[in-house]
Amino acid sequence: DQSLSPVSPFYSVICGIGEIDVDSDRSPVLSSTSPLLRDCATKPYLLLDVRDSDDFNNCHIIGALNYPATMLSRCMNFETREMLAFRNRPNHIIILYDEDERIAPRVATILTQRGYDNVFLLAGGLKVAWKLFPKGLILGDAPPSLKVKPGKRPSGEKKCPSAFLGL
């Protein structure tokens, strides 16, 4: 039957592939000239910012890629090419961070459940990175929640009464 031949455009639909060749878009292509391969060879880590795209575009650590946590809600194609290239690769790690460790631990747990063995968290997230390295590590302008001036307390933190300090 000509209508179901491998040449037929309907053949791939019947086989569940549809109009997109999923494998050609998703598998990491690691030719010797591939920038992805060069990154794997030169950098032993992949730094992923799991905040949404707007927050990432406003401020992120130099060298980080954006991987919004919402990507994990996909049943298929939840991984980027970079993630596939670094997944369980010997001597390579994937580092996740967010603003203050509210989202990244959940992302790390889900990735581990999906077979990743080399996922780590950046302790303290962007908040601690900004505090320790306010210049030279972070691109963009930090959100107001990260900007705490010396001597000032965040709005939710109360001043300790002097009676408790023994004064």
Give the tags.
Centrosomal protein of, 4-stranded parallel β-sheet, Oxidized Rhodanese, domain 1, 13% strand, 2 domains, 7 helices, cell projection, cytoskeleton, Rhodanese-like_dom_sf, two-stranded antiparallel sheet, CEP41, alpha/beta
| Helical/strand content category | alpha/beta
Report the helical percentage. 25-40%
| SSE sequence, one letter per element | HHHEHEEHEHEHE
Distance between the termini: 93 Å
Tell me the name of the CATH class of the largest domain. Alpha Beta
Compute the number of strand runs.
Answer: 6
| CATH H-level superfamily title of the largest domain | Rhodanese-like domain
Largest sheet: 4 strands, parallel
**DSSP helical segment count:** 7
Can you walk through the features of this model?
By secondary structure, this protein is an alpha/beta fold. The chain has helices at residues 9-14, 22-26, 35-42, 53-58, 81-86, 104-113, 125-132, and strands spanning 45-49, 59-61, 65-66, 93-97, 119-121, 138-140. The chain has 2 domains: 1-30, no CATH class; 36-145, Rhodanese-like domain (Oxidized Rhodanese, domain 1, 3-Layer(aba) Sandwich), CATH 3.40.250.10. 29% of the residues lie in helices and 13% in strands. The strands form 2 sheets. Strands 3-1-4-5 form a 4-stranded parallel beta sheet. Strands 2-6 form a two-stranded antiparallel ribbon. Strand 4, helix 6 and strand 5 form a beta-alpha-beta unit. The longest helix has 10 residues, at 104-113. The chain is globular. Residues 10-24 and 157-167 have low confidence and may be disordered.
